[in-house]
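ARCHIVE CARD
Drawer: 12
Card no.: 0347
Subject: one protein chain, sequence and derived structure
Cross-reference: see card 0346
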Amino acid sequence: MESLALQAFSTVTITPFSLSPRSSLHLRSRPITKISQPSVFPSSSIPTLRSPLKPLLLLPERPKPLISPIRAVSRNDSTPPTETTTSPPPQGAKLFPLFLSVSIGLIVRFLVPKPVEVTPQAWQLLAIFLSTIAGLVLSPLPVGAWAFIGLTTSIVTKTLPFASAFSAFTNEVIWLIVISFFFARGFVKTGLGDRIATYFVKWLGKSTLGLSYGLTLSEALIAPAMPSTTARAGGVFLPIIKSLSLSAGSRPGDSSSKKLGSYLIQSQFQSAGNSSALFLTAAAQNLLCLKLAEELGIVISSPWVSWFKAASLPALVSLLFTPLILYKLYPPETKDTPDAPAMAAKKLENMGPVTRNEWIMVGTMFLAVALWVCGESLGIPSAVAAMIGLSILLLLGVLDWNDCLSEKSAWDTLAWFAVLVGMAGQLTNLGIVSWMSGCVAKVLQSLSLSWPAALGVLQASYFFIHYLFASQTGHVGALYSAFLAMHLAAGVPGMLAALALAYNTNLFGALTHYSSGQAAVYYGAGYVDLPEVFKMGFIMASINAIIWGVVGKFWWKFLGLY
């Protein structure tokens, strides 16, 4: 797998706890070296990441929402760094994954008997949909390309008319997700996220545990207005953690990593899922979950407020306990960091006063969040509120159109999300989901499971199936609707089922080094070995499940969700 680099937006020389407003750190696995910035990226400083190992034979390539390949440069290079040409990647689809993906659809279409309750059109669409989902897991092509082929197949075979096939491209929620990528870029470009996190280091950073709490709380604070966990990890928190670790003599790839860096990485990584689950707009997959729930008739009024109320107590409890639990289970060798507040103060001094663009970013985000909270009473949908915010950033020059065009992951997300959402919606309209729900209901009735027991079994299944996925959003697109239908068939209250699955989608992002974008970012820093990622991922997943299950049981009962 290629070396990977996170996109940043400024040029600095690497020093421990860099005094630049937008720090950058060169990250490599054994050994680490300092570099000067490659001239091929004249306006950015980019940390190189260690590539995660392929965990399973048929797992897909990890999505790369904010990353691009770069060449590693040695400090001892005598020639100036220049852009180098590499051998082109293999062209076209990977034959074995292509064969398997297509075969699944053909087997369902021609070899599996069609149930009498299902129309030929619905059965054919199901076959195309399953082939598309198989391609998401097996990756014969990039996700967007494979989704487009699935969309084309549905039109060419006359399974769907053109208008129906493209209907989801006008979906408000999908455009809200796209705009969220632009907001995340604004946070990183202006340096506002870096400034906020540095203030928390200054206030709480006298001890390692306090430092961890400062970073965790600062992420929770900026999460609702920076709806990308990968952007938060790569653009804000990893550079700060790396700087602090190096200043404490904690280096990636050797025994000194245990001094500070490995603990801070694990703590931030395991806490990020709770920050994303706390707010509807803290992660793109949250919005997709609610849209898919709406397709099944679960409409949540005042979604931003309802989401926050239901998530607030279990998420906050988890956020408070995660750094402390890891401090006991995965203790750092360095317990005190007395120099961190002073370094943070020096960094803030070098950053200077809050810039015009940062103030505009703050005001725009307050406006957007206010409209997300109160927009329903004002008649302003969430997507329109986001459009207003983006328009302000463009008009005042905080972002320019090239910034938006360069967010390739946003446009890729638009393409493949819209295809999946459109197919899922048509499957519902054609009766496939109701037929599947009926089948599941009969099985659950034969097992004599109560709905709370069915809720536990289905939630655990949905959670641990993520070991087979390398994308939270891909997992949602593939399985959320099916699992929600199973919950409803088992008699689980609709709003409880929809929200619990959505919260779970954030929590399983820390299971492995490939389970999410931020997982790849933190693992790539080189401070945590692969066995530790899997071990602590499973342990903290179990602890989070207990916290959310116990606290949520009483809190959601109090809120009237069941």
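Annotation on reverse: The chain has 22 helices and three strands. Confidence is low (pLDDT under 50) at residues 1-84.
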